[in-house]
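EI: anyone free to look at a 599-residue chain?
SC: sure, send it
EI:
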Amino acid sequence: MSQKIEDYALIGDCETAALVGRNGSIDWLCWPAFDSDACFAAILGNRKNGRWLIAPAEDVIRTSRRYLGETLILETRFETESGTIALIDFMPPRGKESDIVRLVRGIRGAVKMRMELIIRFGFGANIPWVRRIDHSLMAVAGQDMTVLRSPVETRGEDLTTLSDFEVKAGETVPFVLTYSPSHLDPPAPIDPDIALQETEKFWQDWCTHWSRDGDYQDLVMRSLITLKALTFAPTGGIVAAPTTSLPEKLGGSRNWDYRFCWLRDATFTLLALMNSGYTEEALAWHNWLLRAAAGAPANMQIMYGIWGQRRLLEWEAGWLAGYEGAQPVRVGNAAHAQLQLDVYGELIDAFHQSRMAKLQLDEETWALECAVLSHLAEVWDRPDHGIWERRGQPKHYVFSKVMTWVAFDRGIKSAETFGFKAPLLHWRTLREAIHRDVCNKGLDAEEGAFVESYGSKLLDASVLLLPAVGFLPADDPRIRGTIAAVEKRLMRDGFVLRHDPRELPPDQPPLEGAFLACSLWLADAYVLSGALDKAQALLDRVAGIANDVGLLAEEYDSVARRQTGNFPQALTHIALINTAQNLSAARQESEKAAVQRSK
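SC: here you go
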């Protein structure tokens, strides 16, 4: 019963988020936080696993959607023969409790409507006890409670709350669903009209901080709003996505839980926020990084929970059929226990970039960095599981080794720039040794390109980042060869695969769709090499597959022409922000140079 992934839109309150389908059904919501159990899980099963539908009870002629200006307030318009209604969905900024507000507004004529609420706590498994209290409906199961308030009459039928009502032009019918722990008194009601005004003001005020430089402003603004929505406000942690187990390949088993915070995204995230004028969010993210990584460097993980939790044990929700039958549905992520050397580089780079942007860092930051680099000096030459969290045997992944080089390079630069005490001679020696090691063992001389791992002939899209992190300049023949090899081996229908399809038998289809962030990394490599028109064409191609409200998933199946993977994906939107800003800045520099030459 699930809709296409791109048929969903996002609403949220900066502590959790819900997916609303084009049909007016909320099919995914983890409450009260991103990493809580879902109470609406229909997207991974069927309606009986929980959803909240509000839609016309008659045939719909046309459906359209938009966000109301620069906000996360969603308006879905349904046109029928008898009239038109607007369904306005939003989550107000978090107060004591968390609320979903749904307003049904009559635009033209009179439309008969149907409301269907199926609450199933515990990822669609737990049927709550429902009872009526005054003018509200309370559902309780274990630790969870929701309260529904609306002026329309509701009835219970087949473990479902239903309502049939009519909305005429000029009328508004509100529904408010509120979450609270079940041991507390029922939450106080909120005024839906005031909540709408406050939510609109919150987003509009937040958007005024954006520097609004460069091109692609609508695209960048929507991506920034999405990034803000994926931020867990109490801690500053940013989840990779609000969903679990939306498949990387339709019908496949590569289904992972992304409701956690990855160190891998640290530098990309900071640059996107700082370059857009959001220093407060950047500092909050930096402070989350500092707290999460605190402790023995040997115990540093690739990902943490939104509060900084370390045990993200993985299990399978066997009662859920999976999105379009893609099983298993996983909760938790076993990759948290992997050794991935690249995260050390991303952490140290993030701290260095924060200093360069004049963020006021905690005085303990440099001590942590020194401890991390001391540990990295002992382990940089070990095999690991790589940026893509391969679950097989560890290898000497090229990108992992490059990022250990980045760690020492940024540590050296921070010490030199800011006068910190550091064993610079030792770090410089290690930086040179790692660089030499990568160039000797990570390059396929025949192809003239860097590969996935030492001794391999296979490519990996992460090597596109080598010029961006400063490992080699973009005009180096080895980088040009790497770009050419990626274009030859990893491009499919104009997008970039992250894994080399040659690792599979010729008659077997790729493991997954094109990885959208990798496509944007190629655009960044084009920018650095001066191929601005190629960069723009690729950016436009990725932007062109965003859905009607500007959202992107992790991947794109160019054969089925569908978005795949968890949705919306923070890394995709971060990459889009950075690529748009990089390209715009390069265009401006090119135009300035042209003016200077003409004088």
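EI: The chain has 13 helices and 28 strands.
SC: 👍
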